[in-house]
Amino acid sequence: MLGISLYLQDLDNVAETVQIAHQNGFSSIFSSLHIPEESKIDYWTRLEELGKAAQENKMTLILDISENALAKIQLSFENAEAIRKIGVTGLRIDYGIGIQQIALLSQKITVYLNASTIDQAFLDALKEADAQMENIEAFHNYYPKPETGLSETFFKQKNHFLRGNGLKISAFVPGDSKKRLPLYAGLPTLEKHRFTSPYAATLELFTLAVDHVYIGDPALDPLHFPFWQNLIFNQTLSLEATLADFVPVQIKNHLIQGDQNRMDDARDLIRLENSRPAFNELAIEAKNTILRPAGTITIDNQKYGRYSGEICITKVPLEANEKINCIGQISPLYLDCLSYISAGQKIKLRFN
C-alpha cells in the first residue's frame, strides 16, 4: 500500500490533492496533530476538511498525536475514538503514553506505534493489558535532520523482529517535489534514501518487509504520477527513458505498451521476454554499437543470429559489442529501480 503525507499547518487545496492522490493509486494519508504553542490555526476545522476528503475517496487517515494535542481539540485518550467520526481511521502514538492507555485505544481504533521502540517486553505487556493486537501496527519515524535517519542494518533487524511478531510495518521515503520545512532535506526513514528519488526507495522498502510506504514530504511531481499508477494498479514498473531518433516506431510502441523480464533473471541484463519473437524477422543492421552504461536500452542486431530483435536494459556498465545496438537510456531518476526488477516483473517505458 502507498500513502501520502499532508500536514495541517500548511494544508491547501485539500479536496483536490487527496482526490488526485487517490486517482494515482494512493490509498492512505498520514498527518500530524502536534500543534505549536503559538499557533492560531483552527486545527479542528482543518482536520475535519482532511477527514472529509479521505472519506470521499475511501482512503485511510492516520493521525500522529500526543496527549497534549488531543486536549487542544477537546479530546483525550479515553474518548479518542470520537475522532473516527470525522474520518480518522488510526492514531500513531509515540513517547509518554502508557501501556494501559495504548491497550484501551486498541480496543476502539487502529493504533500505530513507533517501530524503533517496540521490543518483546513491550509487546508482552500489551498482551497482558488485553490490547487488541490485531489493531496494533508498527510505524517507523521519518527523520528531517540529515545524518539522523536509520541505518539499513538496524532497520532490517527491527523489521525481522516486528514481522516475526505478526505486526504490519509502515515507513517513509522522501518526495520528488516540494520538501517540507524547516530543513527541506527530505523526510525518509532510512538515511540512505534522503537525497534519492522515491521510486527505487519505495521498491527497496517493499523488499525489506515494509507493508505500507508513505511519501514523507507533502508534494509529488505530476510528471511522475505514471510510476505510482502503474505500480499500484498494474504491478508494472513504468520507467522514464529517452530513445534514439532512428528507432523504428514498432519497437518504440512495444516499449510503451510494455513487456516483462524473463523468468531466468540474468545477472547483467533485463531481457524483455516478448521482444525477440516480435522483432526477430526484422532486418536489424548494426548501428550505434557503443559502450553500454548502466540503464542502456539495447536491441540485438542481425549479427547475433537467432537472438536478433531481443531488447535488453543493462543493469551494469558493459563493453561495446558489434552485435548489440544501443537505442536508448533509462532516466537517471529511475536507474536505481533496475536493481529491483526481478524475474517476471512487468515493465513499460515512457518517453518525453
TrEMBL record:
Where is the 6-phospho-N-acetylmuramidase N-terminal domain positioned along the sequence? Answer: 2-220
InterPro entries in the cross-refs: Aldolase_TIM, Cyclophilin-like_dom_sf, GH, MupG, MupG_C, MupG_N
In which domain of life is the source organism classified? Bacteria
| Name of the protein | Outer surface protein
Task: Record the organism.
Answer: Listeria kieliensis
Q: Taking every annotated instance into account, which residue ranges of this chain make up the domain 6-phospho-N-acetylmuramidase C-terminal? A: 259-349
Q: Name one Pfam family in it.
A: MupG_C
